[in-house]
Amino acid sequence: MSFFFEVLLGGLLAGVMYSLVAIGFVLIYKASGVFNFAQGSMVLFAALTFVSLLERGISFWLAFVLTLLAMVALAWTIERWVLRKLVNRPPITLFMATLGLSYIIEGLAQSLWGAQVHGLDLGINDEPFEFQGMLLSQFDIFAACVAGVLVLVLSVFFNKTRTGIALRAVADDQLAALAVGIKLEKLWLIVWTVAGFVGLVAGLLWGARLGVQFSLSLVVLKALPVLIIGGFTSISGSIVGGLIIGASEKLAEVFLGAYIGGGIENWFPYMLAMLFLLVRPTGIFGERQIERV
Amino acid sequence: EGEQYFPLQSYRIGPYAAGGSGFFGGFIDYLQYVNLKDGGVNGVKLTWSECETEYVVEKGVECYERLKQGLNGAPAAATNPLSVGIAYATLDRSTADKLPLITINHGRTDSTDGSVFPYVFPLQLNPYSEVSAIINYIGTQSGGLEKLKGKKIVTLYHGSPYGKETNPILELLAKKYGFKLTLLEVPHPGNEQQSQWLNIRRLKPDWVILRGWGVMNPVALKTAQKTGFPADHIIGNIWSNSEDDAAPAGNAAKGFIAITTHPSGTDFQVLQDIKKYVVDAQKGNLEDPKRFGTVYYNLGVVNGILNVEAVRVAQNKYGKRPLTGEEVRWGFENIKLDDKRLAELGALGLVQPLTLSCADHEGGGAVRFQQWDGSQWHVISDWVQADRELLRPIIEKSSHQYAKEKGITPRDCAKES
Amino acid sequence: MTARNPLLTLEHISLSFKGVKAITDMSFSVAEGEICALIGPNGAGKSSLLNVINGVYQPDDGIITYDGEIRTAMRPHHAAERGIARTFQNIALFKGMSVLDNVLTGRNLKVQSSWLEQAFNVGRAPKEALVQRQKAEEIIEFLRIQPWRGSLVGGLPYGLQKRVELARALAAEPKLLLLDEPMAGMNRDEKAEMSRFIVDTQREFGTTIVLIEHDIGVVMALSQHLVVLDYGKKIGDGPPEAVRNNPEVIAAYLGTRH
Amino acid sequence: MPVGALLHIQNIEVIYEKVILAVQDISLSVAPQSIVALLGANGAGKSTTLKAISGLASAQRGEIVDGRIEYQGNDITTTPPATLVERGLVQVLEGRHCFAHLSVEENLLTGGFVHNPSRHKLNQLLESIYHYFPRLKLLRKNLAGYASGGEQQMVAIGRALMSEPTLVLLDEPSMGLAPQIVEEIFTIIKNLRDEQGMSFLVAEQNAGAALRYADYAYILENGRISSEGDAEHINQSEVLLASYLAG
Amino acid sequence: MLYRESGQFSTSYPADRRIFRLYQERWAFYLLLAAAFLLIPWLGNDYWFSAILIPFLVLSLAALGLNLLTGYAGQLSLGSAAFMAVGAFAAYNSHLRIEGLPFLLSLLLGGVVAGLTGVVFGLPSLRIKGFYILVSTLAAQFFVLWVFTTFAWFSNDSSSGVITAPPLVILGHDFSSPQGRYLFTLTVVVALGFLAKSIVGSELGRNWMAVRDMDKAAEVIGIALPKAKLLAFAISSFYLGIAGSLWAFCYLGTVEPHGFDLSRSFQILFIIIIGGMGSILGNFLGAAFIVLLPILLSHIASGLLADTIDAGQLENCQKIIFGGLIIFFLIKEPDGLAKIYQTCKQRLQVWPLRF
Ligand SMILES: Nc1ncnc2c1ncn2[C@@H]1O[C@H](COP(=O)(O)OP(=O)(O)OP(=O)(O)O)[C@@H](O)[C@H]1O
Ligand SMILES: Nc1ncnc2c1ncn2[C@@H]1O[C@H](COP(=O)(O)OP(=O)(O)OP(=O)(O)O)[C@@H](O)[C@H]1O
Ligand SMILES: [Mg+2]
Ligand SMILES: [Mg+2]
C-alpha cells in the first residue's frame, strides 16, 4: 500500500512538471486564441540560451536576466513578423504558423548554441529524503511551489486586470478587438514575453532534470494532454490536469503495464484525456464553445 | 594515384546530434590525418563529403543514393550511416550496389553471418555479444558465473526495436545462469522515468542494465538517484556510454559503469598524432575542441582505422589504386588486427584485436568496462569476451530465415579465400 | 384564422437559460400553407422559438405537434428529414464553398445513390447528379443569383448571402420553411424582391412559412397570420390587421417607448 | 473640398486579396458635429469604405492602393486602428462582432479602456450606456455570445460609445433591431451630436430612417459615389428612386 | 416559374463537372501523364527514382489522405503517420499470413484496416471539436506505434522489430527494380488521385466541406454529421494506409515503427499547408516542394558553399528556411501553392488587364 502512495506522490510531482509547460500554452491560448505549438521550442531556446551563457562564465542572475531579454526579443520578433501579419485569421492558420515558428526557433537555438548536451545545476538538491516512508526530493517540492505561484499570479492577472479582459477579448474576435482600440501589438508582446518567461522557468527546471538538449522541445507532448484535461483556457486547469495526468500515468505504468506491456506512458495520457473529453468536451475548466444560431 | 571516396551520411543536428557530430568528427579527422601524414593510403588520397541525415531514415536513403556513385570519379569505399534505421533501409540497396555497409557496434545482429550478408559489417560488437559480455562481467563481479543464480537483474530498455532486440538473449542467459530478470520499458524519448525507477526501488535488484538512447540516459541516472538506487550498480550499454550520456546527470552519474569497445581519452599514439597533424593545425572537424578524445570521437577514429585498414588490405590484393566497393568488401573480410598491427597503427588499447572473415563480420565481440567519476571515464576492466559460441547458432538461425524469405543462397565460406 | 389544418402546433412551450426565461408557456399553431410572421422586441424569444421548432433547442416543457407527429422535442436532423428547413439570423452559410455547392448541400436529403456509387460514378449516381444539378440551377435562377453561381459565398455582400441562404433552404423542397430576419440589412427594393420570392414560394409549392421580421410594413404585406412576442410571452395572435390594432401590441412593440 | 472637415477622403481605391477591387475613386467628407449617411445597395462598398477609414480593411486582407484619408487634418491612410480610436475615431462593425466569451458588461468595458480612465469614470460611462439601453443592464452578467441578435447590436454600439469618440463610423446600426429601437438609436445619435458634438458616418440600407436624421448623404453604386447632397434634398429628389434605394 | 423545364443546362452539366474544363489544360494534363508513364522510366536514374520520385509520389498520396480529412472535412489531425503505419503493418501481415494473397489485395487490405482504425479514432470527433480533436489523433499516433513495438507478432517476431519488405511481384511481374517501383507507385497514386477528385466533387465532398465550414448549420440542413465525419476518417485513413504500404514496400523496403512517428505526421501536415488545404493539386505541389527543397538546398550548399559552412549549420539553416516558408505562405497565400497556380492562371486569362 505504501508503494501505491509512493507512486501516486511521484506521479503528482511529475505532473506538476508537466503543468509548468502547460501554463505557457494556456497563457497564449487564453490571451490570443493561438494554439502555440512552439511553446516546447521556446522552452528549449530559453534553457539553451541560459545554460550557454552560464557556461561562458556569466553569473546565474545575469544569465537569467540576459535570457529574459532574449525572450523579449523573441517575442518582439514573433509579434512583428508573424502575428501582426496574421491578424484576424482563423485559429487553424495561427496554429500552423506556430508549427513553422517551432522549426525556426529550434534551428536558431541549435545554430546559435550548438547541439551538444549541457548539464545544468540549479543548486537545488535532487537527492531523496524519507518522509513517512516515502521518498521526496527538495527539487520536486521546489518545482511544485514555483508552479503554484505562477498559477496564482497569472489567474489574478487574467481575471482581475483590464489587460486580462482585453486579452480575452482578443482571443474571441481580433477584428472587433482592433475596432475598439485594443493594441494587439502591445498585448501580444506582453503575452509572448510572459510565455517566454514561463518557458524559461520550465526550461530551467526541466533542463536540470534532463540536461539541456534538443529533447526538451519534446516535453510539449507531455503538456498537451494536461492542457486538454484542464481545458485550454484555464490556468488553474493546467495544474489540475497536470496532477491528474501525472498520477494516473504513473499508476497505470506500474500497475497496468505489468499486464499489457510496459512503456504505455506515451499514449496513456492521451487516451485518458480522450475519455475525459467524451464527458466534458472542453476539459474540466475549459470555456464552453458558444454556438448561437 | 587517384582518390578513394567515403560518402558520409552524417547527422549533426536534431535529438541525436551529439553522437553524430562526435563520431563523424573523429572519422573525418582520422581520414585527414591519413592524408596529411602519409599522403593517403599508398598514395591514394582519401576524400569524403557529408550529407546530413538528421538520423531520419529517408534522408539517409536520399543521401545514400546521392553519394553512392562516388565523387568526381573517386569510387565510394563503404557507407557508415551510424543509424540502425538507415542501415536497415539501405541494406538491400548496398548489396545490390555492391557497396559495404558498416554498422560498427550496432545494426542487425544476424548480419554477423557474412555468408548471408556479404556486404554488411557489424564490426567489433553486435548487440547480442554486448549483453553477453555484460552478464559475464556481472558474473565476475559476483565471483563467478555460477554465483549469478538467484541474483536479480533489471534491464531498463528504450521502447524501440533497438531497445528490445536483446531481450530474448537476456532471457536465454537468465535461464542458463538462473538469475531473475525483469524487463522494464521506457517509452521514447524517455524524459520521464519516475514509475520505472519506483518499480526498480520495489524490486531491489542487484544490477540494472541500461539500454538507453539519447536523453533517456541522463534521466535514468537522475531518477535513479532520486529513488535511491546506487549509480555504481547501473551498467550502461554501448549507446549509454558516452560523456553526453553521463555528464548532464551531474552528480547523479558518479560511479555509473558502462561498457565500451574503445576507451575514451587521448593517451593513444594515434590520437596524439591526430592532434599534432590535424587539430593543432586548425583543421580539426570538431566544433568544440573539448570533445577531442571523448567516447563518440574515439569511436569515429576507430571506425576510420577499420575503414582505412580495409582499403589497405584490399590494395594489397588488387593494387595501389582507388578501389570499388566490391574490392573494399574483400578488404574488410580479410582484416586481421593483432597487437603488433595495432601497435603500428598507434591504436593499441584503443581497438580490440580483431579478425574478420567471410563467416564472421563482427570479429571481436569483446568490451571493456569504464566508470564515470563525475567528469570523465576511467577504464576499470580488461577486455571481457562475449560467449560467442552460445550466440552463433541463434544468429545463424535468424540469418538463414532471412535468406529463405529473400530467396538468397548463402555463400559457402569454406570456398572463400 | 384559415380553415386549413394546422401543420405545426406548439402547446405550452417554455424555455429558459440560466436565469433568462426566453419563452414562457407559449402556444400557437400555424396552418398548412400560410405565412405566419413572428414579431416582437429584441430579445423577445423569436429566434429561440424557431430553434425550438427545428430542434436546435430542447424546450423545458410543452408539446410540439408537426404534421401529425407529436413530440416534446425535435432533433435538427430529424426536423430536416421531416421537411423543415430554415435560414439563420446570423448568416450560416458554408463560407469556403461556391454558391452552387451551397445550394446543392441543401439537397443532401434528396440524394438516393450511395457515396460509393458517386465516387466511382456508377449505378444511380450519374443520372442523379444531373437531376440534382438541374434542381439547384432552377432555384438559383428563381432567386436570380446566377451571376455568382461559381463564387465563394464568403466574399459576397451581406444581402446576397441572405439570398443564397434562402436558396439553400428552398433546395430541400421543405414543407415548413423558417426564416429568421431574411430581409435584415436590405433596402426597400431588395426587401420587395425578397418578399416576392417568399410569396412565390408559398403560392407555387404551398410551403408553410414562419418568418421573423422587424419591418412592420413587410410583415403586414406578407403574412396571413401574426404572432407577437414580448419577453417570452405571447401578447398577440391572429390576422395581421386585428393584431396591429391590439393596444398591448402597440405598447410593447410598435408604438412608444416601453 | 470643404474647409475644416473632420474627416476627408480623397479618391481612395480599395482592393481585397490583391485581386478584388471593391471601391474606387471614393471621395467624401464629414463636417464636425454632423451626421452623414452613406447609402447604397448590397455590395456597393459601404462597409469597405468604412473599414478603409478605420484601418480595419487591412485586417481582412484589404489594401488602400490609391488616394488618401485625412482626419482632423492629419493623414491617417495607414494609421493603425488602435491609434485612431485613441484619437476618437471608432467604428461599429457590421454584423455585431461581440466578444462571445465575455459578459455583456465586460464587452462594454473593453470599449472604455483606450483612454485608461479611472474606475469611477468607467462606471459613469457604463451607467450612461445602460441608460441608453436598459435591456443591457438586465443582461450585464450574461455572456454576450448568448444574447439575441438585437441585444448584441446594442452591445456593439454601446461598446463603441464607451470610448467617448469624436467620430463614429456606424455600419448598418439598424440591422436586426426592432422598429422602436431603431428610432431610439437614431435619436441617441442625434442627441450625441447636439449635446456632445460627436459626428457620425452611418452606412445604412434603411435609407428612410437614415435620411430623416442625417445632415448630408452620399450614395454609392458599384464601388463609386454616384451622387451626394443634403439629406433632405436627396430624400426628395429622384436620385434615390433611380438608384433603387428608397427605404 | 420555379421547376420549369430548362433543358439548356442539362447537356453542359457533365462537361461542367469535368476535372479540367479548358481543353488546353486537359491536354497539358494528358501530356504530363504520358510523360510520367512513358518518358520518365526511360530518362530517370536510380537516384531520381529512389530518392526523389517515389517519396514524392508516396508523400503526395499521404497528403491527399490528410487533406481529405483536414482540408475538406475540417478535422485537424496529427496522427497521419499512425494510419500509415497501420496500413504498412496490415499489408505486411496479410501478405505474410494469408497464403497466396496477391500483393495488390494485401495492399488494399492494408488500406481497409487503416480505414477501420481511422473510424475508431474518429469516433470522439462526434463529440469534441476544434483543437480538442487533436487529442484523439495524437492518441492514435502514440498508441499505434506502441502496439507495433510492443507486440512482436506484428513484425513476425523478428528480433529487431524491423520488418523487411517482400519482393514486389504483381501479377507475375517483378517490380523490384527502381523503375518498376516507380511505375507501380505512380499507377496507384494516379488511380487514387482520380478517385479522390471524384469524391470531393460528389455529395460526400460537399457534406465534408459543410461540416468544415459550419457544422451546426450542416446538421440543421439534414447532413448526417456522424456519417460524414466517420467517412472522412475512414477514407482519409484508407489513403494514408495505402501510402504507408507504398512507403514500406516501394520506397524503403523496410518498416520500422519509428519511421512513422510524430514528425512524419507533421511533415504531411506541412505538405498540405504549403500545397493548399482543400485542393487535390495542392498535395502534389506541396509534396514536390517538401521533397525537393531540402535536396536543392543541400545540393546548393555542397556545391557552392562546401567549405564555408558545415553540414550541421546548413541543416539548421534549412530548418529555419523551412519554418520561415511555412509562415510566409500562411501570411501571403493561406491557400497555398495551389492558389498561386490558380491566380497565375487567372492573370494569364485576363492579361494584360489587371483585374
Ligand atoms: N443559448 C442561450 N443561452 C443563454 N441565453 C440565451 C440563449 N439563447 C437565447 N438566449 C436569451 O434568450 C432571449 C431571447 O433570445 P432570442 O434570440 O430568441 O431573441 P429574439 O427575439 O430573436 O431577438 P432579436 O430580435 O434581437 O433577434 C435573449 O435575452 C437571449 O439573451
Ligand atoms: N473580406 C473581403 N474579401 C474579399 N472581398 C470582399 C471582402 N469584403 C467585401 N468584399 C467585396 O467588396 C465589395 C464591396 O463589399 P462591401 O461589404 O463593402 O459592401 P456593402 O455596401 O457594405 O454591402 P452590404 O450592404 O451587403 O453590407 C463586394 O463586392 C464584396 O464582395
Ligand atoms: Mg433573433
Ligand atoms: Mg456592408
UniProtKB/TrEMBL annotation, chain A:
Q: To which protein family does this belong?
A: Belongs to the binding-protein-dependent transport system permease family. LivHM subfamily.
What PANTHER family has UniProt attached to this entry?
A: ABC TRANSPORTER PERMEASE PROTEIN, BRANCHED-CHAIN AMINO ACID TRANSPORT SYSTEM PERMEASE PROTEIN LIVH
Per the record, the GO terms for biological process are: amino acid transport
Main localization of the protein described in the UniProt heading: membrane
Compartmental location: Cell inner membrane
Cellular component GO terms held in the UniProt record: plasma membrane
Extent of the signal sequence: none
Q: Which UniProt keywords apply?
A: Amino-acid transport, Cell membrane, Membrane, Transmembrane, Transmembrane helix, Transport
Name of the protein: Branched-chain amino acid ABC transporter permease
- Select a single GO molecular function from the record's annotations and give it: transmembrane transporter activity
User: What is this organism's lineage?
Assistant: Bacteria, Pseudomonadati, Pseudomonadota, Gammaproteobacteria, Methylococcales
Q: How does it sit in the membrane?
A: Multi-pass membrane protein
Q: Tell me what organism the protein belongs to.
A: Methylovulum psychrotolerans
Q: Which domain of life is it from?
A: Bacteria
| Pfam families cross-referenced by the UniProt entry | BPD_transp_2
Q: Which residues cross the membrane?
A: 6-27, 60-82, 94-115, 135-158, 188-207, 219-247
From TrEMBL, chain C:
Organism name: Methylovulum psychrotolerans
An example Pfam family from this entry, by short name, is ABC_tran
Please, which domain of life does this record's source organism belong to?
Bacteria
InterPro entries from the xrefs? Answer: AAA+_ATPase (IPR003593), ABC_AA/LPS_Transport (IPR051120), ABC_transporter-like_ATP-bd (IPR003439), BCA_ABC_TP_C (IPR032823), P-loop_NTPase (IPR027417)
What's in the GO CC field? plasma membrane
Which UniProt key words apply to this protein?
Answer: ATP-binding, Nucleotide-binding, Transport
GO molecular-function terms, A-Z? ATP binding; ATP hydrolysis activity
The family database entries (CDD domains) matched by this protein are listed as: ABC_Mj1267_LivG_branched
The family database entries (PANTHER family) matched by this protein are listed as: ABC TRANSPORTER ATP-BINDING PROTEIN (PTHR45772:SF1), CONSERVED COMPONENT OF ABC TRANSPORTER FOR NATURAL AMINO ACIDS-RELATED (PTHR45772)
Q: What is this protein called?
A: ABC transporter ATP-binding protein
Source organism lineage? Bacteria, Pseudomonadati, Pseudomonadota, Gammaproteobacteria, Methylococcales
Q: Residues of the signal sequence? A: none
Where the record annotates domain ABC transporter, the positions are 8-256
Q: Which PROSITE patterns match?
A: ABC_TRANSPORTER_2
TrEMBL record, chain D:
Where are the annotated coiled coils located?
none
> Per UniProt, which keywords does this protein have?
Amino-acid transport, ATP-binding, Nucleotide-binding, Transport
MF terms per GO, please? Answer: ATP binding; ATP hydrolysis activity; branched-chain amino acid transmembrane transporter activity
PROSITE patterns per the UniProt record, alphabetical? ABC_TRANSPORTER_2
- Report whether Transmembrane helix shows up as a keyword of the record: no
**Which family does the UniProt entry place this protein in?**
Belongs to the ABC transporter superfamily.
Q: What PANTHER family has UniProt attached to this entry?
A: HIGH-AFFINITY BRANCHED-CHAIN AMINO ACID TRANSPORT ATP-BINDING PROTEIN LIVF
Q: What is this protein called?
A: ABC transporter ATP-binding protein
| Source lineage | Bacteria, Pseudomonadati, Pseudomonadota, Gammaproteobacteria, Methylococcales
From TrEMBL, chain E:
- Transmembrane regions: 27-43, 49-69, 76-95, 101-123, 130-154, 182-200, 230-254, 266-297
Key word Transmembrane helix present: yes
One family name in Pfam for this protein:
BPD_transp_2
Annotated localization: Cell inner membrane
Q: Which molecular function term from Gene Ontology is one that the record holds?
A: branched-chain amino acid transmembrane transporter activity
What UniProt keywords are attached to this protein's entry?
Cell membrane, Membrane, Transmembrane, Transmembrane helix
Q: Which InterPro entries match?
A: ABC_transp_permease, LivM-like
Q: How does it sit in the membrane?
A: Multi-pass membrane protein
Sorted alphabetically, the Gene Ontology cellular component annotations on this record are: plasma membrane
Q: What is this protein called?
A: Branched-chain amino acid ABC transporter permease
Q: Which organism is it from?
A: Methylovulum psychrotolerans
